[in-house]
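Tip: read the tokens left to right.
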């Protein structure tokens, strides 16, 4: 469940960063918007901060045998 949440955070951050870029002929001021510079990288970072402990510690199920 946490892996799915983390993956969706990372994917949404990458989608927010996507868009038209500048070329030698035209300048696109949208590349310096708050959405691309602040919000999208923070979403990706949050996704990785959720994903890393989820993978490292995971769901540890302790099974005990009844005697």
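Filled-in amino acids:
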């Amino acid at each position: 469940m946490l892996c799915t949440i983390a993956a969706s955070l990372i994917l949404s951050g990458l989608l927010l960063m996507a868009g038209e870029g500048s070329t030698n002929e035209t300048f696109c001021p949208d590349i310096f918007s708050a959405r691309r510079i602040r919000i999208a990288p923070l979403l990706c970072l949050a996704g990785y901060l959720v994903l890393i402990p989820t993978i490292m510690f995971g769901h540890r199920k302790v099974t005990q045998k009844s005697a």
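Residues 51 and 57 are 10 Å apart (CA to CA). The mean pLDDT is 86.
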